[in-house]
Specification:
2 domains; Rna Polymerase Sigma Factor, Chain: A; 9 helices
Length: 180
């Protein structure tokens, strides 16, 4: 019978800190890719990569920023790989199968999600890091690997694009969703 491995205190501390960022990673991943199944895969792979590289993490530094960078890099790698493999857009197929709710709030969230996915990927990422995940411009720039000024510009342009997209789309009402 194999011996039970007792984790060292540093591993246990790392594990606890990693567990606290998982919900934030999941929200970021869903915002980036728009597919809950793919987002969960991204988070799982990020957790595995973070655990494997735990010796390189410096205790007391920003675990969220470190793991967001891992997730972002893995997401970009998966995008590059998927472009070589298939032209099928699973996100479009998935949205065709989803029945809309008849409450107003989910309709607005659906409109926002749709608008987010019309943004250029780097602008979507920027607005998710700053607006949804609460990172500072400096932290977001570090995660994205760009200058702070570029991050500020991306966020400003993303916000302007979102306002334009949301203003140009016909707004659904509760009556519209029930009629259709």
């Amino acid at each position: 019978m194999p011996e039970r491995i007792t984790p060292c205190p540093a591993d246990e501390s790392f594990r606890r800190e990693l567990l606290t960022v998982l919900p934030h990673l999941r929200a970021f991943a869903r915002g980036l890719c728009g597919r809950p199944d793919f987002a969960d895969d991204l988070v799982q792979e990020t957790a595995i990569k973070a655990w494997t590289a735990r010796e390189r993490y410096q205790a007391g530094t920003n675990m969220r920023a470190w793991t967001f960078a891992i997730l972002r890099n893995h997401y970009l790698s998966e995008l590059r790989r998927s472009r070589r493999q298939t032209d099928l857009d699973d996100g479009v197929a998935e949205r065709l199968l989803i029945m809309e709710a008849d409450q107003e709030a989910p309709l607005h969230l659906d409109d926002m999600e749709h608008a987010l996915h019309q943004l250029a990927p780097e602008r979507r990422e920027a607005v998710l890091l700053i607006g949804a995940s609460g990172f500072s411009y400096e932290e977001a720039a570090g995660i994205a690997g760009c200058p702070v000024g570029t991050m500020k510009s991306r966020v400003a342009r993303a916000r302007a694009d979102l306002a334009r997209i949301l203003d140009s789309e016909p707004q659904k009402t509760i009556a519209d969703s029930r009629a259709g």
